[in-house]
Amino acid sequence: MASSGFDGRVAVVTGSGGGLGREHALLLASLGACVVVNDLGGDVHGEGTSIGPAAEVVDEIRRRGGEAVADTHSVATEAGGKAIIDTAIEAFGRVDIVVNNAGILRDKSFQNMSAEFVDPVLDVHLKGAFFVTRPAWVLMREQGYGRVVNTSSSAGIFGNFGQANYGAAKMGLVGLTHVLALEGARHNIHVNAIAPVARTRMTEEVLGPLVEIVDPRFVSPLVAWLCHEDCVTTGHIYTVGGGRIARLFIGMTSGWARSDGVLDIDDVRDHFDEIEDPTTYSIPGLGLTDDLTALRDALSSPA
Ligand SMILES: NC(=O)c1ccc[n+]([C@@H]2O[C@H](COP(=O)([O-])OP(=O)(O)OC[C@H]3O[C@@H](n4cnc5c(N)ncnc54)[C@H](O)[C@@H]3O)[C@@H](O)[C@H]2O)c1
Description:
The protein is an alpha/beta fold. The protein folds into two domains: about 10-250, NAD(P)-binding Rossmann-like Domain (Rossmann fold, 3-Layer(aba) Sandwich); about 250-300. About 40% of the residues lie in helices and about 15% in strands. The protein has helices at about 20-30, 50-65, 80-90, 115-145, 155, 165-185, 220-225, 265-270, 270-275, 290-300; strands at about 10-15, 35-40, 65-70, 95-100, 145-150, 190-195, 235-240, 245-250, 250-255, 280. The strands form two sheets. Strands 3-2-1-4-5-6-7-8 form an eight-stranded mixed β-sheet, sandwiched between helices. Strands 9-10 form a two-stranded antiparallel sheet. It is globular, with a radius of gyration of 21 Å. The termini are far apart. Nicotinamide-adenine-dinucleotide binds near residues 17, 76 and 104.
């Protein structure tokens, strides 16, 4: 694909001073987008700040003939989110794409997880996506165009030991993605989520043998496609890493229903196998309609 589709487009990529975000920024810039390279420049736990990482990525983009500007505001506050979008407006006059990628880790087993481990993780991953996307959203609605990619994680979708804070934040981003996909649909704003697997400072010690294969560069093509104007998909989640991509979805078993709609604990116990049985399942669409339709259908033709 030539650069068409990104020429004149402005992308904000949070946390793009290193790791996955850097690759997203480099690819989007090489495809013709003007990129805001946002990065606070701290360590993997969110301590410290530095202009260095964002500035280096901007230099690299410019050396390759692309357009980019550095931004070091934190995504973790409302003021920071607004300032990041202001940087895009001041430098390039518009915002078409937001990639919510910034992230930190504060792992702890749940029984030892105090607020100092919970709050910063929710602030950066989950609230950060709110804080950066909302000021961009206002502009996207006005222009009738927008693409948002949220960075979730299999640690939230499937769970991972020692990451209650991170997992909750990352699954929260799935909920945010679904709601924004619904609210954005009639404004041509598409919102999707990825659950990447890549070798970065965040993961290099936990990937085992996969560490050789999962170059962060090979996550970015999916991000770029989800940000492309020809991509009509919205509200979907993908696992992506090492050159493999698959859609993840939330399915609903056929379940079991009582015709009178009255349920007691014995019903649950006696029909638990049917409730659990994944042999037949559906994938509800966005919004409540499919879920409520399934309920109505089950009550009109109970097992
Ligand atoms: N690497 C993986 O396999 C993997 C798996 C699942 C999810 N993720 C997610 O992908 C995203 C990128 O992670 P990565 O693996 O590239 O790690 P990384 O540490 O290299 O990148 C995260 C970047 O976010 C920046 N950042 C942190 N707090 C910030 C803040 N408040 N404001 C602005 N920038 C901030 C950091 O400085 C860093 O450059 C994260 O959201 C992470 O949770 C990564």
